[in-house]
Amino acid sequence: MSEVNYPHIATFVACLLPFLYALSSAGAPPTTAATRTSDVPADEVIQRLLKEGSLQLSTDKLCTVERFSFRLLLRYTAPNAPDQGMDCIVVRDRARVAILVRTLDQLPYCYMTEGLVVAADMRKPGGLVIYEQGAPEFVWEVNQTGKQDDMHLQQPSDAKLGRIRLDLGGLLRLRAQGATGTAYDPIRGVITVTTDNTENQWLLPAADLRPPLPIAIKDFVTRVPGKVVCGVTVSNETQPQNDFFSVTKEAVTKLGVPVRQLSKDENLVVIPPAKFGDDEQQRKTASLFSILLPDRRKE
Q: What is the DSSP letter of 280?
């Protein structure tokens, strides 16, 4: 994120440090190594998938899929503290990108798209803040060292176009390189890879799934037992059920709740605080997001 006079939405990167640290340094999980559950070796299935499968969704020019969406679930668990994390929807519609960040119980907290962020006002419960710069960016891939995950969610203030990069192929290759055990279940279509500190599963789509998926993996879940769970589910619909691009500043101001511009002395952390939603006014305002994101089936 680049520094400008007006604050960028800052942010999720710092909040993800516990997740990235856990993936790179946690102790070995209390499980035994995975074993092969089919006549086809898991390593063979993995290598074939890496060689032949479409394993990346992005806004890069090399990605030919111009419409897609996926759900990301991230949950931290810590002793003597409530779980923290997010459940969010990431959407690409050609040149446009939208991201809806929700709490773990799916209470809307923050919406991001080109030129607009709408988020819960943590200074005034029940209100909303608006930020009218930048464009959303979501990345989950292997970092430049090739040894660790890189994940961030942000709204750089100088960005003009949204950016998405979900590289499940790179994550699969990284886990396979450090595997202590692998398994493939052809009935469920599940590849399992364990490493010294993670348990990972990839769910392959059914051959008769219609419409077909835009990628060769339907679900990916990585776990650091007792600490972190992070997973992605890719939709096979070209457009999500709700219209994620109908949100405007004008529509937000008509919701009947206090709305203000994000001030220059504050940053907005786009991961929901652990106690967000405890206040009844916060929950009522969050429920109004259904007005901003109408159901296409009811149009």
A: H
